[in-house]
Each structure stands twice: as C-alpha cells, then as structure tokens.
Amino acid sequence: MTSLVPLPVVIPLLGAALTLMLARRPVAQRAISLTALTATLAVSSVLLVLTVTDGPQVVAVGGWAPPLGIVLIADKLAALMLVVSTAVTLCVLVYSIGQGAADGDEETPLSIYHPTYLALTAGVTNAFLSGDLFNLYVGFEVLLVASYVLLTLGSTENRIRAGTTYVVVSLLSSVIFLSALGLVYAATGTLNMAQLAGRFDELPDNLRLLLQGMLLLAFGIKAAVFPLGAWLPDSYPTAPAPVTAVFAGLLTKVGIYAVIRTETLLFPDGRIADVLLVISLLTMVVGILGAVAQSDIKRLLSFTLISHIGYMLFGVALATEAGLSGAIFYIAHHITIQTTLFLAAGLIERRGGTTALDRLGGLGKIAPVLSILFFIPALNLAGIPPFSGFLGKLGLLQAGVDESGPLVWAVVAGGVVTSLLTLYAIGRVWNLAFWRRPHPQMPTAEDEADGSTVLLPRLMIAPTFALVAFSVALTVVAGPLFGITSDAAADLLSRTPYIEAVFPDGAP
C-alpha cells in the first residue's frame, strides 16, 4: 500500500492543474476542488490506519532508491497531520464556496482561487510527508507562494501592505533555511533525514549547534514563535475569512511540525532544551498579553494563535514521550479550533458588519446559532473541561511536572496563567459581542423577524458546524488519539522505526 503515500501531494496538484485549465468554468472548478480534497482526506485516513497497524509507509519518488532519490514517508505523526489538515482545508473550501455564493460572485469568481488553494494544500501535504530536507524546503516554498496569492486576493491597500510584510519575512526565513541546507550538505554530503540522523552524530559539537540554530531560526519564523512572530497579527486579519482561517489553522503548524521532526531525528541530545523552554514561556505570555490588549476579534485570535504555539514548543523542549505526545495532540486540537474560530469570526463580521468589539453587541439574541458556533470552540481554546483543549494542556503540564526543575516549573506556571488569560480574553469577546446590549448600529431581533437583515448563508454555517463537531469528536476519542500520539512520540524519540523504514539494511 506504499503507492498511496504520494497521493496526498499528487491529487491536489492534479486538481490545481485542472482548475487552472478550467478558469472560465467556475462550477467545474468547485466540483474538482471538492473532489480532490475529499479524495485526499480519504487517502490520508487510510494512511493513518496503515501507519498504526503496519508502521511507517515509504515510497521512493521516481523509483530512485534513497539516498539518491527523494523519499516520502508517512509515519504516525505525518499521517495524523495529513488527516487533520485535509479535513480542515475541505471544510474551509466549502465555507469559501458558500461565501462566494452569498456575495453573488459564484458565477464570476477569481479564477485563480481554486488552483492556488489546491497548490497550498499540496505544499502542506508535501511538507508533512517529506523525508528529505530539500523536499521539505520545496514544500514550504510551494505553500508560501500560494499563500502570497491568497493573502492579497482583491488587491486592497491593506492586503497589499500586509502581503508585502508577509513576503519579506517569509523570504528571510527561506533564505536562512536554504543557507542551512547548503551547510548541511557541505558537512554531510546528504539531505536525506534518515541518513542525516547518523551522520549528524559524527559532526563537531559547534557545527551541529550552528546547523541546529539556523534550522530553528528558519522554522521559528514560520511558526511565529517569540520574538519572530510580530508579523502575524498584521498579516492574517486582513485576508478574506476563509484564507485567514486556513492560514491560522495550518501554516504555523507546518513550522512546528518541522521543529518536531528535525529536533527529534537530527538533534536528539537536547542541548538547547533550556533555550526552547524560555522561548516557549515567552511565546505563551507575550502572545496572550497581546491578545488581552486587542479590541478586534481577528487580531485577538491572531495573538492567541501565537500564544498557544508556546504550548507545542514546550512539549518539544521537554523531549520526553509524554511531552511530545501532548504537543502532537495539541497541534491536532489547535489546527481544528483556531480554524473554527476564524470561520466564526468571518460569520460575526458578516452578521455584524465588523469584528471591532466596540461596535458589536447583542449577537447572542440576534444570531443564536452563531453564538453556539463561537462559544464551543472558544471554551475549547481556553481549556475548559472536558474539551480537547483542556486534555491537551493537562497532558503537557503533567509532562512538565514529571520533569521538575525551576525552569520547567516556570513554564508550567506560565501555561496555567496563559490558559486563564485566554479564558479572560475569550470571555471579553463573549461579553462585548454576544452578551451586552446591541450597539446602536447593530441589527435588532425585530429587524431579524421582519426579514430586513441578511441571514447567514447555510453553506457557510454548515462547514463551521462540521468543524465544531470535529473538535468535540477529538474530545470523545481523546483516549485512542492519545494512544496514537504516544506511539508517535515513542517512535520519534527512538528514531529507529523511521530510519529502518527508509534504510532496512542500515543507513549508508
């Protein structure tokens, strides 16, 4: 069944090519995009089952055996990321189609949207499956080029300005990553990660530390960790709601995935664990303080996005099975929750005409369905029991308690404070946008009754509801899911399953 491994990359790429050729046929574009992502989700689900039952699935691209050729590897970590990310992108695509239909542009949409969206998906899946550092770089570049286009759709002044910042920061990250690749190849003669796992152990300590620092710097910019994430709150909120949602849910997590993969496979000695702990603490605290200070829902959610990246980095810094398992679980949870909240923010903007808290009010009475769609993931983000956000944070904090040490205890305390401040920030949104009396410019319940206001499109509500249900399902299946993440963490720490899957006879 290894032939399935390339399909999560190939299917979206073929879909992108077909939708580009059918630029003047929007109905066909939508049908192809939906079919491609549905097929990708099905294949990803099968791969997850195979990795759990049979171990890592490996394919040599073009029949070129490693290390000469590029390999794609689906292990438990990669397969889980594929399933969650593809489910999210499919729901966001349906949401964007519903938004286009409601805005009256379903017959004359931007013809580049569907090809670019599918190219973005291919870049994400390629990054998750890559067993080669250069191919990982290619995956990043594909998704980044696609994201440049999606971020500036409509060519408004704010989007162009935000897109310019995003491009400059992303190019800087790419230059650092590419420079690191050149140094890695010069030092080891290979970019195959399974082969590098052995060869890095033979390098001088100072050279290994330099390469580790460069890779972490490149991935840290992409993951928006402190102090490298200042670009995010100004870039994401300006994009259309579906684009913002998929960016918030996925792009930073690809950076964290790259950190997990390289830190466990290439740098297992934990030499900079203390540095990662400090960065995770600062990312949590500075991010959530920024969120508390915001008066716009999208910007507030952008800062909470940065803050909660700190939890994932905490699990990586612990470098224990419990820590990594909690980090992987939290990534799956956060992809779903953050995407859902940004979709809900898009519905709030559509219903209230803005996401500025000082101009909203009364949504709880005016739009009760929207209230539910925001309330459940908001509680989940804040870590209220029994939701998956609580379970993920509990797993990470428990892993920290088990390790002891003053710095670890400081991060545990920071995680608790961050969770409380997240609850405060979300509660403030609920109070101002949903609970208090309607703002004078807000539509009233009477307006809703007489039909003078615009109802929220069902094709936008349905995928948001589906993601809310998916987030609740993560809570229901938390036990089996933690079993998968624990097995994935054990495999990451041992490194043997990954290396032997690529080189059954031993790495050359």
Automatic annotation (TrEMBL):
The keyword Cell membrane is annotated on this UniProt entry: yes
InterPro entries linked: CPA3_Na-H_Antiporter_D, NADH_UbQ_OxRdtase, ND/Mrp_TM
Example of a GO MF term: NADH dehydrogenase (ubiquinone) activity
Bilayer topology: Multi-pass membrane protein
A biological-process GO annotation: ATP synthesis coupled electron transport
Keyword Cytoplasm: no
Transmembrane segments: 6-24, 31-52, 77-98, 134-154, 166-187, 207-232, 239-260, 272-293, 300-320, 326-348, 369-387, 407-427, 465-484
Keywords: Cell membrane, Membrane, Transmembrane, Transmembrane helix
Protein family according to the UniProt entry: Belongs to the CPA3 antiporters (TC 2.A.63) subunit D family.
Compartments where located: Cell membrane; Membrane
Start and end residues of each NADH:quinone oxidoreductase/Mrp antiporter transmembrane domain: 130-421
One GO CC term, this protein: plasma membrane
Broad class of where this protein is predominantly found: membrane
Name assigned to this protein: Multicomponent Na+:H+ antiporter subunit D
